[in-house]
């Protein structure tokens, strides 16, 4: 059972490992996966408006029989909704789809457009008790500096791409100065085979009788980073959660730190990113 957690800057405790549902379809698969993950012991689900599966997450939580207060739910606002009035509506719609009176953590999913207006709506929703913690995502050092003055409440987290190939050293320094916790998306490199076959990681897996995924997730946990690996396979759900019965030594941590290439799959600073993302996901396509 995983009951390890991290304390955020607003004093809430978030389970250190969650279950991510990006790219799990809303054809019943998200419902089945979340139900299975909860049964296995996950108590933290990471979804988003732009994953189009909040309703299935909400239904699985309802049907799990587990008390709502024992489950951490994260969701994220998408780009079409950042104008202040739209942002307020988006939060209420997420609450409705998730069938819950409050969301534990809500994020600004992508840092473009009217981020300041969306943030204001999120700060208000927090004070109204609709959201417990608020945070941002995909903020690079450059983007963070652009927006930091609009935060009356400091974001609790910044959810960014992170794995042994992309360790975000510069960003982590800025986040730690502000007491903002890093959350990793693609903690397993989205299944990158080169990463999963790194000799250093394979040797450690052998030493601890674990698999490479567990070595990576344990490394991230020891770095103080929140993870929520995605899988539709129950054996992987079990193994990804099972990282609390061993510890990497400081030399082993250093050897994994050496794998950093300081480059990810996605560059939020690249020109045209906002348009690319807006075109890729229209969360109001069905309203039209
Ligand atoms: P992950 O790094 O979690 O990798 C998921 C992939 O790895 C899937 O293809 C899965 O395959 C495979 N996998 C899972 N476990 C293992 C294992 N133990 N060994 C080998 N392969 C494995 O990538 P994600 O992009 O899904 O990131 C995790 C979560 O982060 C997302 O689900 C989402 O919640 C969040 N996210 C947030 C973003 C943002 O912009 N804020 C962007 C992207 C993700 P299979 O399912 O077949 O097992």
What does this structure look like?
With 288 residues, this protein is an alpha/beta fold. 40% of the residues lie in helices and 15% in strands. It has helices spanning 29-40, 54-64, 84-97, 115-127, 141-147, 169-177, 193-196, 199-208, 212-222, 234-241, 250-257, 273-280, and strands at residues 5-7, 13-15, 19-20, 44-46, 72-77, 103-108, 131-137, 157-161, 181-185, 226-227. An eight-stranded parallel sheet has the order 3-4-5-6-7-8-9-10. The protein has a two-stranded antiparallel ribbon with strand order 1-2. Strand 8 (157-161), helix 6 and strand 9 form a beta-alpha-beta unit. Helix 1 (29-40) packs across helix 2. The mean pLDDT is 97. Bound molecules: NADPH dihydro-nicotinamide-adenine-dinucleotide phosphate. NADPH dihydro-nicotinamide-adenine-dinucleotide phosphate (NDP) is lined by residues 20-22, 46, 109, 137-138, 159, 185-191, 196, 213, 228-233, 236, 239-240.
What is the count of β-strands?
10
The SSE string, one letter per element, is EEEHEHEHEHEHEHEHHHEHHH
Query: Helix count?
Result: 12
Strand order of the largest sheet: 3-4-5-6-7-8-9-10
Question: What is the rounded distance between the termini?
Answer: 45 Å
Largest β-sheet summary:
8 strands, parallel
List its salient traits.
12 helices, binds NADPH dihydro-nicotinamide-adenine-dinucleotide phosphate, 15% strand, 288 residues, alpha/beta, globular, 8-stranded parallel sheet
